[in-house]
Amino acid sequence: MNLEPLISEDFEREWSSFHVNRKPLGWMLRSDESLAWVRFHSLPDSKRYPENEAEEGIILSRAYSLGNTTLGMGASCWQIECRAKELNPPYWDAPVSGVKAITFADDEEKLWCAHVLETHWRQDTLDAILLAVADDKTGPTMWMARNTGKIFAPYDGGFDLLVSSPEEVEQLKAQFGEWLSDHPEGL
Predict the structure, then answer these.
(1) For 56-87, what is each residue's pLDDT tens digit?
(2) Residue 103 has pLDDT above 80, yes or no
(3) CA pair distance 65, 4, nearest whole angstrom
(4) pLDDT for res 5
C-alpha cells in the first residue's frame, strides 16, 4: 500500500482545518496579523549563530522547552520543511520513508515544495534537524501539532510560535521572557 497519498491528504485536510488559505512558511504565517504569534531568540543577546557546543546546547534546550510547551511532549505532529522548488530534496539526517512533497506558490509566486513527514515531538530526538535550522543549512522548517494546529517554527536565530490565542502568547512571554527580543515588533 502506498502511504504517500494518504499522508498528503491527511496533512492538507488538517492544515486547512487550522490554517485555511495559509501557506506553511513561518515568515508568511508570522506576518498574518490575525494569528497569535510570538518570537524567542535562540541564544543570549540576540546572537544569531552558535559558535561552539555550549551554544548549540543552549539552542537545543530552548528549542525543546518551547516545543514541549507549544506542541506537547510526544505530540503527534507534521514536520514540514519547505524548499524552493529548484532545491529539492529536503534536509534530513537520513533517508526517511513516508515523506510527501506538496508544491505551492508564495505571495510573490515563487514556487515552493513542502516536504511533509508524520512524526512525534520528542525530547532529544530532533537535535540534528534543529541544529541544521539554527545553522541555516535547511529550508524553512516547522512542526504543527495535529490536534491543535499550534506551530513551532525555528529559524536561524530563534523560534516563532503560533498558538491559539493572544492570552497564550502572554503566558509564553511570562514563562520565557528572558528569551524575548527587545525589538518593538518582537522581531
Answers:
(1) 999 999 999 999 999 999 999 999 988 776 65
(2) no
(3) 31
(4) 47
The verdict on residue 119 lying in a domain is yes
Given this model, what pLDDT does residue 27 score? Answer: 80
Higher-pLDDT residue of 106 and 156 is 156
Query: Long-range CB contacts (< 8 A, 24+ apart) of 169-177?
Result: 169/36, 169/37, 169/38, 172/38, 172/40, 172/66, 172/69, 172/70, 173/38, 175/69, 176/40, 176/62, 176/65, 176/66, 176/69
In a domain, 77, yes or no: yes
**Torsion over CA: 122, 125, 126, 127 (sign):** positive
Question: Which domain range does residue 67 map to?
Answer: 4-179
Judge contact between 81 and 138, C-beta under 8 A: yes
Mean pLDDT over 11-22 rounds to: 89
Residue 64, domain member (yes or no):
yes
